[in-house]
Amino acid sequence: MNSIRLDKRDLILSKGSAVMTRRGYHGTGVLEIVQAAGIPKGSFYHYFASKEDFALQALAFIYRPRLQRYAQALSDPSLSPRARILGYYRELLAHFARQDTPQYHCFIGSLSFEMSEMLPAIGAEVAAIQQASVDILRGCLEQAQAAGELPADEDCGNLATFVSDAWQGVLARLKVRHSLQPLEAFVTRLERLLQA
């Protein structure tokens, strides 16, 4: 019974977050979420107290696995720390290059722009996810520094924040321009940044 409950909750989170990513928080009602999931409207309130609760749970549902994959990629012992970072972002570039028209719809970006100030709980969750990503990258940068791949006086925390913020900017430009150019420029600049 518990697995059925989790499966249905996950289905609602998956389908509903896709709708909310495209239409925004305000443009998405509970009806659109349940229609996307193919469930009765009453089922929504069995799993979520409100639309805000849904958005908070969807952030965790989407970004916990992504953060785990990021942490795994940046801790691969078969590669040097610098190679891990560059390999991760080169793979993302390759992923977008395989698309007919490069595009990106970012759930966290949509929510942060639209709702962070209006609903502080969403703002706090977005900030926590972003900080977790920065912390993962900072740890790998510190390993790169210890291995002599970065200057000894590099501020790894500041560099991690800069790279993370720059990546969010790249994703915003990708959403607007549907061009690989911002991603290619980001990877080229990252290669230069990560030099001893």
Automatic annotation (TrEMBL):
<dbReference type="InterPro" id="IPR009057">
    <property type="entry name" value="Homeodomain-like_sf"/>
</dbReference>
<protein>
    <submittedName>
        <fullName>TetR/AcrR family transcriptional regulator</fullName>
    </submittedName>
</protein>
<dbReference type="InterPro" id="IPR011075">
    <property type="entry name" value="TetR_C"/>
</dbReference>
<dbReference type="Pfam" id="PF00440">
    <property type="entry name" value="TetR_N"/>
</dbReference>
<keyword id="KW-0804">Transcription</keyword>
<dbReference type="InterPro" id="IPR036271">
    <property type="entry name" value="Tet_transcr_reg_TetR-rel_C_sf"/>
</dbReference>
<feature type="DNA-binding region" description="H-T-H motif">
    <location>
        <begin position="29"/>
        <end position="48"/>
    </location>
</feature>
<keyword id="KW-0238">DNA-binding</keyword>
<keyword id="KW-0805">Transcription regulation</keyword>
<dbReference type="Pfam" id="PF16925">
    <property type="entry name" value="TetR_C_13"/>
</dbReference>
<dbReference type="InterPro" id="IPR001647">
    <property type="entry name" value="HTH_TetR"/>
</dbReference>
<feature type="domain" description="HTH tetR-type">
    <location>
        <begin position="6"/>
        <end position="66"/>
    </location>
</feature>
